[in-house]
TrEMBL record:
This is FAD dependent oxidoreductase. PANTHER family: FAD-DEPENDENT OXIDOREDUCTASE DOMAIN-CONTAINING PROTEIN 1, SARCOSINE DEHYDROGENASE-RELATED. One of its GO terms (molecular function) is oxidoreductase activity. The lineage of its organism: Archaea, Methanobacteriati, Methanobacteriota, Stenosarchaea group, Halobacteria. Residues 24-360 form the FAD dependent oxidoreductase domain. It comes from Natrialba hulunbeirensis JCM 10989. SUPFAM superfamilies: FAD-linked reductases, C-terminal domain, FAD/NAD(P)-binding domain. Keywords: Oxidoreductase. It holds the Pfam family DAO.
Amino acid sequence: MSEDAPELAVGADAFVEQGAGHAVAVVGAGAVGATAAYDLARQGADVTLYERGTVANESSGRAAGVCYDAFAGPIDAEIASDAIERFRALSGDETFPFTECPYVWLAREGDDRRADAIRGQLERMHAQGVVALEMTADELAERFPALRTDDVAVAGVAGGAGYTDPGQYTACLAAAATGAGATLETETPVSLEIDPARIVRDDGTTETYDAVLVTAGAHTKRLLADAGISIALKPYRVQALVASCDHPEPMCYDATGGFYLRPHPEGLLAGNGTEEWEADPDEYDRAANDGFADDLLERVRHRLPDAADIDLERAWAGLCTATPDRDPLVGQLEEGLYVATGFQGHGFMRAPAIGQRIADQILGGEGIDAFDPTRFDGDEEFDVVEGMGVTDD
Ligand SMILES: Cc1cc2nc3c(=O)[nH]c(=O)nc-3n(C[C@H](O)[C@H](O)[C@H](O)COP(=O)(O)OP(=O)(O)OC[C@H]3O[C@@H](n4cnc5c(N)ncnc54)[C@H](O)[C@@H]3O)c2cc1C
């Protein structure tokens, strides 16, 4: 391990030299690519992680860092649970802090559709063994006095949850990847050639690999399209803010109000502001819309009536990626070419488990059938649907 690389709390003694002899390129040093590079390198693969800017300069550097295991589908629940376990195991004083914090999601009185959906989600979570409680308004008030609850019809509360700084996580995993032997090339935009899998730098130099993993976030569709491969993916814009105030817990998603919030070292972080249409990953506006912060802070104040002096510190926008069925695209596209994208606003919280699974698949393990990226032709018509809404599926 190099002197600068953080020593993660788990790892070195657990790895198997399964990747020895495999030359693998990972394109994109966001949370997913950095994790995969780390897992590939610690299994002995010869890994190069290419990043067109700096580590975490796109969505992973703009994310809220809300993490939870409260998913109702079996594979989602398994992945989310593994990810939370890994956040706990990898974090530490010298790496990135993962702060345990309960996650509450709620529907308001009169919003029967979302209230029923939350009850249905909780039933399905229980069937998966996810530890999540249903609470009434009174129970919620007793447990979380900071929250306004008199308008709440039903709430779910998940204990397998917490938050961290996504940029710090990503930087830490990229450094740990180099510590495990990976090469990191930042400020290096690349394009692809396939059959054989080849990376082409802007200066025209090329490198050939046994496998290339594309984790280029919102740029993934464009990058693959330039190599003649179409995937069903649309980037869309979301917004968030940090405000000063005192908010110790919980993290909360108000499904009726259409926003989430979590504690933050400066007070709280809140967000949503989803735009349900396709954004251009090279041209989108990185500043929050006029009025976004005022409107969101009004909703936050409603939910936190006793929090005095909630003042805006900063607001911003970033991109998430949508797929036709709201499940990600993770797996093999063609011989030697893999992808991991399309996380519909939940890519950071799943990165520790997705990175590990795709690394394993590249080195000969099984993929995740439900996320097989070839389940779509790539030219499907579909609408962007916000990732956080509560649904019956
Ligand atoms: C405001 C906001 C809040 C969010 N909150 C949450 C949250 O609380 N929890 C959660 O789970 N998710 C959240 N998300 C979603 C989350 O940010 C993403 O799902 C996740 O960061 C995706 O990680 P990634 O590694 O796939 O992509 P990215 O982090 O976007 O990384 C892709 C990388 O590829 C690089 N790249 C692109 N093209 C090339 C090229 N040609 N050559 C080399 N490199 C290239 C980019 O520069 C970039 O660094 C949020 C997103 C936003 C915008």
